[in-house]
Design brief:
This protein has 154 residues and is an alpha/beta fold. It is built from four helices and nine strands, in the order βββααβαβββββα.
Length: 154
């Protein structure tokens, strides 16, 4: 299913502080939504810290960043605090947003097929429309790819 050109699905999820967040957060500015498997694991920590380390560049471009995983808001809170992440982390334990985005499903892990989060990133425009997708992210150099794509779309 090709989601490019479609609106971000309707959702209500908790952020790391337990506040309810919905799709209205996407209106008015560009958004990077990155789906990652698990708080405090090596690849997810690296990806989140890469977005953190480029936060000032993204803010100058008037771009917000949101992370999303199935972890609880309490887990997200610890992860955010430990790594000083300056952006929201959404908790989607039932994959209510992850599934319609295609970021949850069958994947290979250690040679075994499992159900889980497929590391993905979505660029959403100020009207809430998905403009670009990385369906299977490789962490190294990913933030630079996102920045280049944003520049070409803005």
């Amino acid at each position: 299913m090709n989601l490019i050109g479609k609106k971000i699905p309707t959702f209500k999820l908790q952020d790391e502080d337990g506040r309810m967040i919905d799709q209205s957060l996407f209106r008015g500015q560009w958004t990077v939504l990155y789906a990652y498997p698990k708080d405090s694991t090596p690849g997810c920590t690296q990806e989140s810290c890469d977005f953190r380390d480029n936060w000032s560049r993204l803010k100058r471009m008037k771009v917000q960043v949101l992370g999303i995983s199935r972890d609880s808001h309490a887990s997200h809170q610890k992860f955010r605090d430990k790594f000083e992440l300056p952006f929201l982390l959404l908790s989607d334990p039932e994959a209510k947003l992850l599934k319609p985005l295609g970021a949850f499903g069958k994947k290979m892990m250690y040679g075994k097929e499992v159900q889980g989060i497929i590391r993905s990133t979505f660029l959403v425009d100020p009207k809430g429309v998905i403009r670009f997708i990385w369906p299977k992210v490789s962490v190294k150099g990913h933030v630079d790819e996102v920045m280049e794509q944003l520049k070409s779309l803005m």
